[in-house]
Write a structure and sequence with these properties.
By secondary structure, the protein is of the alpha/beta class. About 35% of the residues lie in helices and about 20% in strands. It has a single domain, classed as Rossmann fold (3-Layer(aba) Sandwich).
């Protein structure tokens, strides 16, 4: 039984490490990024290592993630959960670390601040905001294997919810969407920004994700067909 988000992710990767687990489109820029379970897990591990080995964070600490729905956001959130750190997406003021984009105006006490431009091919920012490190440059310095952290179902996970409570919400949402193992679900990132929807519900259901930012609805049917989508949540 999977009682924590890291356990859910590990089960998803074990099921089929080579097949696409998260495919991301940005119709504004033409970006398409496909991550297998193994590739996503590598990014998650790097992020967790950054948090634990790089910043010294652990259970009881909080990382604010003020970013739109994106494959990098998925990697950061899952890395935070894997490190045993609580993710905060709505109230970053008291967080111990911050992950954001340059266009966000975020108030936080965190001294460790990371920015990413969410650029194609995980390119670094050309101009880095003052007081920030570039997430994609920093995270690449860390190993793509994370040995794990002591995470329990009762530990804080997301916006004040424990891992158990977060997974219960994701399981409920998966049932509402009729997600089943093997489902391939397409989400409009703009209308469904909650990671319970676009990230955790599919993971707990054993589904894979097609996440579309700035969705061009004229291409929706063709994309659903080419990606073998079984459900569109737009």
């Amino acid at each position: 039984m999977q009682n924590t988000i890291p356990q859910v992710l590990a089960a998803a990767v074990r099921r089929d490490p080579a097949s696409p687990l998260l495919t991301f489109y940005d119709d504004a820029g033409g970006d398409r990024t496909e991550l297998s379970g193994a590739t996503l897990d590598n990014w998650v591990s790097k992020t967790a290592n950054l948090l634990v080995d790089g910043l010294g964070l652990s259970n009881g600490d909080t990382a604010a993630v003020t970013m739109p729905a994106h494959w990098q956001t998925a990697a950061i959130l899952l890395g935070v959960f894997s490190a045993g750190v609580e993710a905060e997406t709505t109230d970053p003021a008291s967080a111990d670390a911050l992950f954001t984009t340059p266009d966000q105006s975020t108030t936080t006490k965190a001294s460790d601040r990371y920015a990413t431009g969410l650029l194609p091919f995980a390119m670094p920012l050309r101009e880095l905001p003052t007081g920030f490190a570039d997430f994609v440059l920093e995270v690449r310095q860390f190993g793509d294997y994370f040995p794990g952290a002591p995470v329990t179902a009762a530990d804080p996970a997301l916006n004040g919810r424990t891992h158990a409570e977060t997974l219960a919400a994701a399981t409920s949402r998966a049932a509402e969407l009729n997600l089943t193992p093997g489902s391939r679900v397409l989400f409009d990132a703009t209308t469904h920004p909650d990671p319970i929807d676009w990230l955790l519900a599919p993971l707990v259901a054993g589904a894979s994700i097609v996440l579309c930012a700035h969705l061009d609805r004229t291409t929706l049917d063709a994309r659903a067909g080419s990606e073998k989508v079984t459900l569109v949540v737009s």
